[in-house]
Amino acid sequence: MSIRYELVIYWSEEDQSFLVEVPELPGCMADGETYEQAVTNVKKVIEEWIETARELGRPVPEPRGRLRYG
């Protein structure tokens, strides 16, 4: 799967792991012991998020690319 959604990746001291959030998909996030593992894990979570949204008849946002803050 090609990820086109923006990923926000950061280290969490509290969790002692990397966390990945997908701002365009509310509630979509994953973690991992390494940066690479966190990205691998979030790919699966994105697939599951999209599959669940479709099953529930909810819209799936199109990736917008780089988000603009401000």
What does this structure look like?
There is one protein chain. With 70 residues, this protein is α+β, with helices and mostly antiparallel strands. It has a domain at 8-55. It has one helix and three strands, in the order E-E-E-H. The chain has one helix at residues 35-55; strands at 8-12, 17-21, 29-32. It has a three-stranded antiparallel beta sheet with strand order 1-2-3, with helices on one face. It is globular, with a radius of gyration of 13 Å. The N and C termini lie far apart (30 Å). The mean pLDDT is 92.
Descriptors for this entry?
3 strands; alpha+beta; 1 helix; 70 residues
What is the overall shape?
globular
> What's the multimeric state?
single chain
Distance N terminus to C terminus?
Answer: 30 Å
Strand order of the largest sheet: 1-2-3
What's the alpha carbon Rg, rounded to whole Å? 13 Å
Helix content: 25-40%
Q: What is the number of helical segments per DSSP (H or I, 4+ residues)?
A: 1
Q: Which structural class matches the secondary elements? A: alpha+beta
- Give the amount of beta strand, in percent: 15-25%
The total beta strand count reads: 3
Instruction: Tell me the series of helices and strands, N- to C-terminal.
Output: EEEH
State mean pLDDT (0 to 100 scale).
92
Which spans have pLDDT < 50 for at least 5 consecutive residues? Answer: none
* Main sheet summary: 3 strands, antiparallel
